[in-house]
Amino acid sequence: MEYDYVIKNGRVIDPAAGIDGIADIYVYNNRIVNPPVNGCGESGAVIDASGCLVLPGLIDFHTHLAYQLSDFGLNPDLYTLPNGITAAVDAGSGGTANFEGMYQNVFSKAMITIRCFLNVAATGIITERYPENLDPARFDEKKMELLFDRYRDVLLGFKVRAGRSTSGDLNLEPLKRAVELGEKFNCRVCLHATNLDAGYDEIFRMMRKGDIVCHIFQGDNRHNILNEKNQVADFVHAGRERGILLDCACGRVNYSNRIMRAAFAEKFWPDIISTDIIGFSIYGPKIHSLLSVMSQYYGMGMPLPDLVRAVTAAPAEVMNLQGRIGTLRPGANADIFVTRIQKNPLDIVDKFGETVHLEETFVPMLTLKEGRPAYRNILFDPY
Description:
alpha/beta; TIM Barrel; 8-stranded mixed beta sheet; 7-stranded parallel beta sheet
């Protein structure tokens, strides 16, 4: 077979395939393919990944990609591909009034693979100047039926926010209604939970297996994942055991280094690592990109295979794309990220002023999207 690319000599980490070791990856057209029998018949461009990690294309599970249609919106490809991200989830930028316009004008035109949560509020999340209207009486259930019928392969479920600055006096009523809608439409619910007026014990009682709690390391007040002994609370462990998924979704303000340290001391890792990156936080001082979040978690002790799983195989499964993305198995899309862990001292300071100091960071070298180079670091000369 005449291969297009052969990526050689890198440390391949693919949790979905149970691979962690030096291996070669073969690309033909837009797919990863089997290696040649007995090493014969190799051809095509050879990429030497010596000293690098070769990973499935990363997945940023919590983004806002409604470029020029929301104050939060990022240009999907411009943010993702240079940072090794080949797939992403838009976390409720659009609701029933504007999702279709966002999908048709932005999401469907991107190079990367995009899936979405539909915001229960009709307007979605379009500005930071005021929150969306989360009164369940305002939800447009009829339009939800239309959108789920039309975009069932794109929509993963419903997005809802809860907390003093979002749902206000409604507290958990929007979540309760969102879960009812999740039952009706047979889909997941993704909850933004910050600055809460209720404990996670109450939240986890309401949510179901497969639902997602975002910003799991937020520390706005006493309602967080820790108990009075500064340990991860029993009801958080119980919620995870029931199948509720925990997404860090750091954002620039939705995490606490103190709470993260306490959780990591117990080897309590998130199921999914994502950014909640938005138009006015990208490349900022508190969060650079998905790579800075990965660097922080790695520097704080999260094992590399677990970390890679949380940005590849785990979100791919929630997106119903397991086997196609988030893996380097033959037959999968040739979405590939080559990165290097380099010495690069970095301080990450949360909004509470607490600092995590890192000595190393992930540096992007090369991104292939469906078998074609989409980014290459000018310092990486592998040919």
